[in-house]
Amino acid sequence: MAIFINEILMFINSRILCSLRCTLTNYIGKVFSKELYDFCVMLFEKAGLTKEDAEIVSDHLVTANLRGVDSHGAFVRVPHYLAAIKQGIINPKPKIKLVKDSPSICLIDGDNGFGPMVAMKATKLAIDKAKSNGIGIIGLKNTSHVGMLARYTLKIVEERLIGFAATSSPPIVVPWGGAKPIFGTNPFTIGFPVDEKTSIIVDMATSTVAAGKIAVYASKGEKIPSDWALDKHGKPTTDPKAFFDGGMLLPFGGYKGYSLCLSVEIFAGILVGAPFSFHIPKGWATQGGFIVEAINIEHFRPYDEYKRDVLELIQIIKSAPLAEGFKEILLPGEPEQREHLKRLNEGIPVYEDVWENIRKVAEEYNVPLPKLYK
Amino acid sequence: MAIFINEILMFINSRILCSLRCTLTNYIGKVFSKELYDFCVMLFEKAGLTKEDAEIVSDHLVTANLRGVDSHGAFVRVPHYLAAIKQGIINPKPKIKLVKDSPSICLIDGDNGFGPMVAMKATKLAIDKAKSNGIGIIGLKNTSHVGMLARYTLKIVEERLIGFAATSSPPIVVPWGGAKPIFGTNPFTIGFPVDEKTSIIVDMATSTVAAGKIAVYASKGEKIPSDWALDKHGKPTTDPKAFFDGGMLLPFGGYKGYSLCLSVEIFAGILVGAPFSFHIPKGWATQGGFIVEAINIEHFRPYDEYKRDVLELIQIIKSAPLAEGFKEILLPGEPEQREHLKRLNEGIPVYEDVWENIRKVAEEYNVPLPKLYK
Questions:
Q1: Contact B201/B333 with Cβ under 8 angstroms?
Q2: Beta strand B188-193 with B161-167: parallel, antiparallel or unpaired?
Q3: Which of A242, A249, A366, B353 has its CA 20 to 30 A from that of B242?
Q4: Interhelix angle for A352-365 vs A33-46, to 10°?
Q5: Alpha-carbon distance B12 to A355, whole Å?
Q6: A241 assigned to some structural domain
């Protein structure tokens, strides 16, 4: 049981909707990533994206599913993203502009293009600048939902660079001491390359949990810990219903998480000229600003020396005696990396409710559904 | 009482030794910052520092006292720092070397010089590079204790730049799931400039609390919360004595704090080629690596636009309804900023135990003590 709790903790963001789904709807089979990817590419091309852009967005969504981050994967997001194109929230053919550019910094206007595509372009530019000048830091405004942040640091560590990215998002989190949702869950990611098999990928919200996690408790009729949420009167609550009745999320780790949430708000939002989280409309496809940074290790020391030291540190961590209730010490991103390998081989699980939504868009866009394996 | 708890939380690092001192020893008067500064400069010059270096170190220590961060101030640190010079841990006349240099990045070898001095030189270099090229990121190895991290972001925000700094430190914190102290409290600071009167200064350890905080509980015979520490067997404990008997600190916010603690370990330690926290000798003057970053806001958008938005955000935060038990919503660094103004006018409180240590070094170095006001 103790290891289960640890696993759940490591997966708070990633497994949340999946857990909820396990509770609320039925497992009906699995699809394989390549077939899901092809399906998404066809859909997005029909929705007006270029082939290249459709491929980038599809790769992003399927990567999220493979890592177990189903809340940001194809099944959950595709119907909402397609609806957002129709509503004019996402521009399928954006004219991306470099607003300001210098050797290590650039500000991009994404023209409300697809988040996973414009944010990946920003990431590639950060990589190019880090390779040429040691560091690249790119701000992005006017973007739709950028998806799973780890996607960007995964790209950066592939190039043997250190990566960082953050984004501001619709309001649901209070400042420490306040009772009004002013901040988004304002997540960030940090990535350290190691070797072909290993990387360290931090990807966390600055709230204690996602709202979906509270939904899981609600569905089971269980109480939530007292440091997760406030009710609509600003009083800490253990009742999931009180959260959903106009309540708010607390930052993680008290005033420390608040400091980080506020820092993301300024760094990823205000610095790039995006609207405050407070003003971002709620929805599946909305986002504030985005910032991404890549750092060239070789500008400090030879990569092989860095790698040798990180591997030694990992060995020290992994061989430490265990605290009570734990069966293993995990690195940040390790559970998702394991899930990736598993789902690549065994397929991505599919649940009844999302499949029904996917079936509808497949019909509407006249694209054949990916095969469902039992 | 509720606001008192909030205040204590905001001051965990800063007030800790002061609180402990209030509990254990007697208040005997106060000194004024200018007189304390002059005293420190004279002492450090006699200990072999150049006048300029003595001034930088003294300014650092007195600034810590003014902000209420007495654990990193003159009374606590001066005797230990002087002892460290005698023991060869601090080199009073270091030959600082630029190991690697490029337009936005530099790696410095501090030759075991005084931390507050070599880290401030790194900070000034980061500022210069950010002014010229938009961003400056400086790594520092072979340094002694760098002191209060906020000192560096305070310097950076004075120049209307965004700042970040982090450092690795002697082992006392476990990885999430482990029962061996592998990391230091590995603190970091983030600074955002606003206007002449306001800045946002985050300065936090990545452990739940400092060990001194547990000492306060021990001195009062009170239990500690169960998420602060493990006993020597790796079992969460509420008994302060079990912590001091071979126990360890937990990272703040569970696995999220662990992710940050590990990130600081690699970014401020391994990247700059410093020893692991795990290998840093315990002591008042030891440190791992240090990294500092300055970012030029003007490379993204005009400073006045940024300032207007941050001021509006602060207004939104400050005018939010209050959560139960709070009387005010504070910005990160605001309590320290208020304490600074108060102590500048009213003096810095002095306690019997540290004054006795200061009296001894004043006698040894034949320097007149600063005047003690009742």
A1: yes
A2: antiparallel
A3: B353
A4: 40
A5: 50
A6: no
State the CB neighbour count (10 A cutoff) for residue B45.
18
Counted across chains A and B, CB pairs separated by less than 8 A come out at: 237
DSSP string, B9-34: HHTTTTTHHHHHHHHHS-EEEEE-HH
Residues 6+ apart with CB under 8 A from A86: none
| Contact predicate B290/B139, CB 8 Å | yes
Backbone φ, ψ for residue A176 (5° rounding) = -65, 115
B20 and B60 assigned to the same domain: yes
Is residue A236 one of the residues assigned to a domain? no
Q: Are residues A71 and A151 in the same domain?
A: no
Pair (B267, B293) in one structural domain: yes
Question: Where do the DSSP E strands lie in B247-302?
Answer: 248-249, 290-296
Residue A294 domain-assigned (yes or no): yes
Question: Which residues in chain A show pLDDT less than 50?
Answer: 1-20
Domains held by chain B: number: 2
Look at residues A21, A168, A200, A121 and name the one whose alpha carbon lies nearest to residue B260: A200
pTM for this prediction:
0.94
Question: In this complex, do B316 and A267 lie within 8 Å of one another by their Cβ atoms?
Answer: no
- What is the ipTM, given to two decimal places? 0.93
Chain B residues with CB under 8 Å of A234 CB are: 321-324
User: Which letter does DSSP use for residue A73 in this model?
Assistant: S
Burial of B334: CB neighbours in 10 Å, binned 0-12, 13-18, 19+: middle
| CB-CB contact of B313 with A266 (8 Å) | yes
Residues 6+ apart with CB under 8 A from A76: A17, A70, A354
**Minimal C-alpha gap between B33 and chain A (Å):** 29
In this structure, are B177 and B296 located in the same domain?
A: yes
Q: Which of B14, B3, B1, B7 shows the shortest CA–CA distance to B202?
A: B14
User: Do A182 and A40 belong together in one domain?
Assistant: no
Same domain, A284 and A197: yes
Reported as a single tens digit per residue, the pLDDT across B186-236 is: 999 999 999 988 999 999 999 998 887 888 888 888 999 999 999 999 999
Tokens found for residue B183: 């990391």
β-strand partners of A248:
A230
Contacts with B, A 284-313, CB within 8 Å? 295-297, 299-301, 305-306, 309-310, 312-313
> Both B193 and B300 in a single domain?
yes
Q: Give the E-state strand segments of A6-149 in sequence order.
A: 27-31, 97-101, 105-113, 135-143
pLDDT tens for each residue of A25-80: 689 999 999 999 999 999 999 999 999 999 999 999 999 999 999 989 999 999 99
Q: What local confidence, expressed as pLDDT, does residue B41 receive? A: 98
Under a CB-based contact definition with an 8 Å cutoff, are residues B309 and A270 in contact?
A: yes
For residue A172, the SS3 value is coil
Q: Chain A residue with minimal CA distance to B268?
A: A300
